[in-house]
C-alpha cells in the first residue's frame, strides 16, 4: 500500500502546453509560449523554470502558495512572464520578445513541487521562426479542412435524416396497424357482428 501511495503522488503533478506543442512565429515579433500545471493536493514553494534547447535557462520563478502570484528569481531580459496563479488556472506562460531566427528550437516548461515529495514534471514546445507567414498554405489547409468537414457534416446530416425518415415510416406503419385493428373492430361492433367476419374467414375443413 505505501508503494501505491507514492505512485499516486508521483503522477499528481502535471504540466501542459495545450493542444499543440508547435508554435510558428514571425521574425522580429513577440510570441506566447503557453504553460499551465495541475496538482491534486496543492502546492507550496513551487519552483518553475523555462529552458531553451534543454540547457539554457531563460526564466526561473517561484510560487509560495495558491493565494500568491509567482515571483521572479531570474530571467532573460527578452522574456516576459504573463501567467497567473491566483486565478482559476495555474498559468506560468511566458512571452519571448523580438523573436529571431536563432530562437527557433525546443522550449521546456519545468515544474517542481516540494509539497508532493519534490514531484517534477515538464512539457515541451517547438518554436519555428519564419521570414513571413504564408497565407496561401493556410487558405488551402482551411479549404481542405472546410471541404472535409463539410463532407463529414453532410454525411452525418444524411445519416440523421435517414434515421428520422425511417423512424417516421416505422411510426406511420405502426399507426396504420393500430388504425386497421381499431377500425375493423369498430365496424364489427357497429354492425352487431362481433366475431362474425372472423368465423367466415376460417379455413374450410378438409
From TrEMBL:
Gene3D superfamilies: Immunoglobulins. Residues 181-191 have a biased composition (Polar residues). Residues 2-126 form the Ig-like domain. Its main location: membrane. It comes from the Eukaryota. SUPFAM superfamilies: Immunoglobulin. Residues 180-206 are annotated as: Disordered. One of its GO terms (molecular function) is transmembrane transporter binding. It is found in: Membrane. GO terms for biological process: cardiac muscle cell action potential involved in contraction; regulation of ventricular cardiac muscle cell membrane repolarization. GO terms for cellular component: voltage-gated sodium channel complex. It is a single-pass type I membrane protein. Keywords: Disulfide bond, Glycoprotein, Immunoglobulin domain, Membrane, Signal, Transmembrane, Transmembrane helix. It holds the Pfam family V-set. PANTHER family: MYELIN P0 RELATED, SODIUM CHANNEL SUBUNIT BETA-4. This is SCN4B protein.
